[in-house]
Specification:
Layout: H1 33-43, E1 56-65, E2 84-93, E3 108-116, E4 119-126, H2 139-146, H3 157-166, H4 171-177, E5 192-193, E6 198-201, E7 207-216, H5 225-234, H6 238-248, E8 254-263, H7 266-269, E9 289-298, H8 303-308, E10 321-322, H9 327-343, H10 427-435, H11 438-452, H12 457-470, H13 472-483
Antiparallel strand pairs: 1-2, 1-9, 2-3, 3-4, 5-7, 6-7, 6-10, 7-8, 8-9
Bound molecules: NADPH dihydro-nicotinamide-adenine-dinucleotide phosphate and protoporphyrin IX containing FE.
NADPH dihydro-nicotinamide-adenine-dinucleotide phosphate binds next to helix 10.
Enzyme class: oxidoreductase
Catalytic activity: 2 H2O2 = O2 + 2 H2O
Keywords: Heme, Hydrogen peroxide, Iron, Metal-binding, Oxidoreductase, Peroxidase
């Protein structure tokens, strides 16, 4: 038997197809509260899209640990071979709006949430091990050059290359983006990276710097520019379709989870600043250590509730995992939860996808819009009942847990706005260029020329000088490709 149709107040609805009018051809009645409820709710169906990474796809799954990391960290999901932890992963493109095509040349977001017994741990990374910038203060300017021109409302190659030509720190990431890995064939056929340096700490209070790598077990597959252009026209949602269908079909995608680990003291003497997000740690210096498998095996039931309202944040850290002095990471620790309070509302962490599934939230934060939604995994929402709303108290309210305090981190130096241009911007871009075969290098030149050729001559010249500093053959190849246009 079908259930009865009701209004939001639960009252049964007799007729949901005809609005209330004065006569068969007459105007509508203000008293038609059913019509008003439907139209008014419809007007509020959208929330602001993410300011970046607006188009995305998500799924749940499992992380299985196959190497115990208790020597490095007390984090629950890294304890004991065979340990399984529920995960949620959202993939995305960066610059396009929520309706944009999945096959754009753009970094892909790779944002993983581990629902651990000690709270949600999010690694909000990309399919690239690096980023365009090493200081978050530049991020809004950079994104303005990736989004639409304020006058023409079109993408703006001149702005993009103007910014990049003045920020050579971007060259490594530009080389990755313009390479054959710049358009992954699907979300399943690409790697993910935590990108930043994070920290792990163990029961003895020792700290280690760590980088996370998620290596696809489906193999790397990419699209050429021509293939991508075709797919964008035929099926703008091809990556969403691929992910959803493969999980529905029981063909569960997997990634091998790896870490690079650096003892705390190494950071002082390593020849690269290990907190510079424009650089990788070469594998020969810090080899990959495989620690487990991440598998996606369950599609969300409702895209809006579980993917659009998912609120992943680098600040979602758990005991045993911490931040690092990486200036980009530090900026991100503020930006995400702030964006989510605006985008979803103050109590976004009570929504089922966001609340901690395996750790009961207990705090003294109260009220705000939509308070009391609750986390279905733990009965009532923290603060939705009449329990004590201040701490400390003598009423057996939730108590601090000093045993999970992070060990102290030594910081030193005078407060200043340090000029980071002293860092080397070119060596690793050159390393990547030299790693490519001739065919890959030619594709790189052509792809760069296709948009750099739309920028003015002075900017092209500046870029050629940057390519030259990475590798003379890099500059020569781009120059030839520009001349052939
Ligand atoms: P390695 O030879 O040990 O590693 C090269 C890495 O490059 C591999 O991880 C490979 O991934 C990856 N790779 C190959 N082609 C591309 C591409 N077009 N875009 C992005 N990554 C690619 O060398 P190093 O560790 O010394 O690093 C050399 C360069 O490799 C770096 O400058 C960086 O650009 C790139 N790289 C390095 C990573 C690191 O963490 N060290 C991670 C990813 C890239 P796979 O094994 O999946 O084929
Ligand atoms: C999304 C800011 C750098 C990966 C977002 C959002 C903001 C933001 C505000 C939207 C969050 C939301 O509404 O839920 C910033 C700032 C940065 C920065 C200020 C630099 C200081 C980076 C870097 C990476 C990254 C370096 C990857 C290494 C992502 C991903 C998402 C995202 C994957 C989408 C998360 C999801 O799927 O919901 N960023 N970002 N960002 N960002 Fe960043």
């Amino acid at each position: 038997m079908t259930e009865r149709l009701t209004a939001q107040n639960g009252a049964p609805i007799a007729d949901d197809q005809n609005s209330l009018s004065a006569g068969a051809r007459g105007g509508l009645m203000l008293q038609d509260w059913q019509l008003i409820e439907k139209l008014a709710h419809f007007n509020r169906e959208r929330i602001p899209e993410r300011v970046v990474h607006a188009k995305g796809s998500g799924a749940y799954g499992t992380f299985t640990l196959n190497k115990d990391l208790s020597d490095y960290t007390i984090a629950d999901h890294f304890q004991g071979v065979g340990k399984q932890t529920e995960v949620f992963l959202r993939f995305s493109t960066v610059g396009g709006e929520s309706g944009s095509a999945d096959a754009e040349r753009d970094p892909r977001g790779f944002a993983v949430r581990f629902y651990t017994a000690n709270g949600n741990h999010d690694i909000v990374g990309n399919n690239t091990p690096t980023f365009f910038l090493r200081d978050g203060i530049k991020f809004p300017d950079f994104i303005h050059t990736q989004k639409r021109n304020p006058k023409t409302n079109m993408k703006d190659a001149q702005a993009m290359w103007d910014f990049w030509s003045l920020n050579p720190e971007a060259l490594h990431q530009i080389t990755i983006l313009m390479s054959d890995r710049g358009i992954p064939a699907t979300y399943r056929h690409m790697n993910g990276y935590g990108s930043h340096t994070f920290s792990l700490w163990n029961a003895k209070g020792e700290r280690f710097w760590v980088k996370f790598h998620f290596k696809t077990k489906q193999g790397i597959k990419n699209l050429s520019n021509e293939q991508a252009d075709k797919i964008k026209g035929i099926d703008p949602d091809h990556a969403q379709r691929d992910l959803f269908a493969s999980i529905e079909d029981g063909d569960f995608p997997q990634w091998a989870v790896n870490v690079q680990i650096m003892p705390e003291a190494d950071a002082e003497r390593y020849h690269i600043n290990p907190f510079d997000l424009t650089k990788v740690w070469p594998h020969k210096d810090y080899p990959l250590i495989e620690i487990g498998t991440l598998e996606l095996n369950r599609n969300p039931e409702n895209y809006f509730n579980e993917v659009e309202q998912a609120a992943l944040a680098p600040s979602n850290l758990v005991p045993g995992v911490g931040a690092s002095p990486d200036k980009m990471l530090q900026a991100r620790l503020f930006a995400y939860a702030d964006a989510q309070r605006y985008r979803i509302g103050a109590n976004y962490n009570q929504l089922p996808v966001n609340c901690p599934h395996a750790s009961k939230p207990n705090h003294y934060q109260r009220a705000g819009a939509m308070a009391g939604v609750g986390c279905p995994f733990h009965g009532s929402a923290a603060g939705s009942d009449s329990s004590v709303n201040y701490g400390p108290n003598t009423q057996q309210g939730p108590a601090q847990q000093p045993q999970v305090a992070e060990p102290p981190m030594d910081l030193a130096g005078a407060m200043d706005r340090y000029d980071k241009t002293v860092e080397d911007d070119y060596a690793q871009a050159g390393d990547l260029f030299r790693l490519m075969n001739g065919e890959q290098q030619q594709a790189l030149f052509d792809t760069i020329a296709s948009t750099l050729g739309q920028a003015s001559m002075d900017i092209q010249e500046k870029m050629l000088e940057h390519f030259r500093q990475a590798d003379v053959a890099y500059a020569a190849g781009v120059k030839a490709a520009l001349e052939q246009r």
